[in-house]
Design goal:
alpha/beta; Muramoyl-pentapeptide Carboxypeptidase, domain 1; two-stranded antiparallel sheet; binds zinc ion
């Protein structure tokens, strides 16, 4: 909020501040991400544009966007950006989990993430007094109560540990009390949970196309089985899971991409196993959309590919063949972040032996699900890769109930 304008900005104005306001309006989706005709097919809704690519003119379109934002936020709807609208816009770019939150007297943190935190605390019975998007002393007190209740270190700061506790709690609850239902609704709106998302799984090959056959395994069967194991885990935490194919069908890559786009899924995961003539090649690799030449790049895809790569390597011990940008049809034509995983070489005797083991496939599936969770939690690198486990939710709930029985 350091570059907050003191002046008013309105229709007809030009300059760098106008440009930065446009960037904020893109972030809140009040301005369309892709200007009509301005982008080729490579431009996807999740791609991150540097600020320099935005116009610096306050035009009609921008005034409309400002009014839409003001209307939604209960501000005076005049299409003019003054200090109040600017603070609200600037705060809107933060979602719970984007940054560390704490009470900093003299310069209080403000933003939508703080409001989300307060709503969540309130829903769980830890009152921050009111939901105003400002991290003050009462919010800190409520955070401390929450931390004590769930057995965390009590520091009043909202970092990865506390966010994870919120996420675990949202996974643990289902049906029942108004608090529970409200919490689920908040999680859905918060954008920082997998719950309520849709993931489309794309097991490679299928039908008559078996993919690689080696060491007694058919790639199409391994990928479908792995997809089902991922599906089970995602369904259990409230994710809607779709498939691009059944055991007997084999759509081509473009058809798979079209299916994904029409489904409106948030994420696509394409599952394959690798093979080569050189029997010594082994390991796991991940791929995301990127063409350096054209400056087209899926930043979210890259991040997710990297998280999956790290989790799989840490948990399975498969050789690390790293993640790479590719312009393959499926990666390029999907509108959501898509990651293709080449999980082991069927042509490699040891990789194949491990892939034949159901327990190993479970570990692979768990690694993939944890990577997805990490992405939505916005967790940083302070949590060691490969050690986070899907918690025993029942035990967690019991802790929670015990805490509620105690006086705060
Ligand atoms: Zn394949």
């Amino acid at each position: 909020m350091s570059d907050q304008p003191v002046a008013l900005y309105r229709l007809g104005d030009e300059g760098v501040v106008v440009r930065s306001i446009r960037a904020l309006l893109h972030a809140t989706r009040d301005l369309a991400l892709v200007a009509p005709g301005a982008a080729g097919p490579a431009e996807t809704a999740e791609s991150v544009r540097p600020e320099g690519q935005f116009s610096d003119v306050y035009d009609e379109e921008m005034a409309r966007a400002v009014r839409a934002f003001q209307q939604r936020r209960g501000l005076i709807v005049d299409g003019v950006v003054g200090p109040q609208t600017y603070i609200a816009l600037d705060g809107a770019r933060w979602t719970l989990g984007d940054r560390m939150l704490s009470h900093t007297p003299g310069h209080l943190l403000q933003g939508d993430d703080v409001a989300q935190l307060q709503e969540r605390l309130l829903a769980l019975g830890f009152s921050p007094d009111r939901v105003d998007g400002v991290f003050g002393a009462n919010t800190e007190k409520a955070v401390r109560h929450f931390q004590r209740g769930v057995g965390l270190a009590i520091d009043g700061q909202v970092g990865p540990e506390t966010l994870r506790a919120f996420a675990d709690l949202s996974r643990a609850v289902s049906g029942g009390s108004p608090h529970t239902l409200r919490e689920q609704e908040l999680v859905r709106r918060s954008g920082h949970s997998l719950t309520g998302r849709t993931v489309i799984l794309d097991p490679g090959h299928g039908g008559d196309d078996t993919g690689t056959i080696a060491h007694g395994l058919a790639e199409s069967e391994v990928t479908l089985d792995l997809a089902r194991r991922v599906e089970g885990r995602l369904s259990a935490i409230g994710v809607t899971v779709l498939f691009t194919r059944s055991a007997t069908t084999c759509p081509d890559e473009l058809e798979r991409a079209t299916m994904a786009n029409e489904s409106g899924a948030d994420i696509m995961l394409s599952l394959h196993c690798d093979s080569t003539d050189q029997s010594r090649a082994s390991g796991v690799a991940t791929f995301f959309y990127g063409q350096e030449r054209f400056g087209a790049w899926s930043a979210v895809g890259e991040h997710l590919a990297d998280l999956i790569q790290r989790e799989v390597v840490a948990r399975t011990g498969l050789a690390d063949c790293r993640s790479h940008p590719r312009a393959w049809v499926l990666l390029q034509r999907t509108q959501m972040p898509t990651v293709r995983i080449e999980a082991g070489y069927l042509s490699h005797e040891e990789d194949a032996a491990r892939l034949a083991d159901p327990a190993f496939r479970d570990t692979l599936a768990e690694a993939i699900v944890i990577a997805l969770q990490r992405m939505y939690l916005g967790e940083d690198d302070t949590i060691a890769t490969g050690v986070l486990r899907l918690h025993d939710l029942r035990a967690f709930l019991e802790t929670q109930r015990a805490a509620q029985d105690k006086p705060a």
